[in-house]
Structure prediction request, 114 residues.
Amino acid sequence: VQLQASGGGWVQPGGSLRLSCSASGFTFEDYALGWFRQVPGKEREGTACINNSGGTTYLDSVKGRFTISRDNAWRRVYLQMNGLKPEDTAVYYCNVVRQGRAFWGQGTQVTVSS
Prediction:
């Protein structure tokens, strides 16, 4: 299983970014996928998840601002982030759990500051 995240960067408060994660090594359409984020000194937290039917869940603090989506044909999961706030600054990771084991992408840094 390989996950490759991209799309992070620096943005001013109120701005937008779109993260992308490409996946290989498993039957993509059969699995739920997630985005997590982590800041130094804190535990990694689940930010958004999309199941294999397209159902989504979100961390309360990002509801209404972030949208997770998937493209099974291209084996990609996306995280559209609008209305970004400084507290969204973190390293963002894509995730899949397969056969009881969690797999992670390498992470992409998102920095929100003026």
Observations:
- Residues 2 and 111 are 25 Å apart (CA to CA).
- The first strand starts at residue 2 and ends at 6.
